[in-house]
Amino acid sequence: MGELSRAIQQRLDDAYESLRHAHAVGDTYLVDIRQEEIKELRRIAANHDIGLEPSRCD
């Protein structure tokens, strides 16, 4: 796994963790922000043919 792949995977892991927390506390604004961040990171990965681990939060 290259540096870009690792960076994207780490950012996704962090975003999913934050998304779970936002759901738990009812922060709908942060939920929206994290969902958009996840969508953008997945788009970047797809554009660079980077395979990602399956999400644990979709």
How much helix is in the residues?
over 70%
Question: Counting H and I runs of at least 4 residues, what is the number of helices?
Answer: 2
Number of strands: 0
Low-pLDDT residue intervals, each spanning 5 or more residues: none
User: What class would the helix/strand composition place it in?
Assistant: mainly alpha
Rg calculated over all Cα atoms: 12 Å
- Overall mean pLDDT score? 91
Distance between the termini: 23 Å
Q: How is the main sheet built?
A: none
β-strand amount: under 5%
Shape: elongated
State the oligomer.
single chain
Please trace the helix and strand order, writing H or E for each element: HH
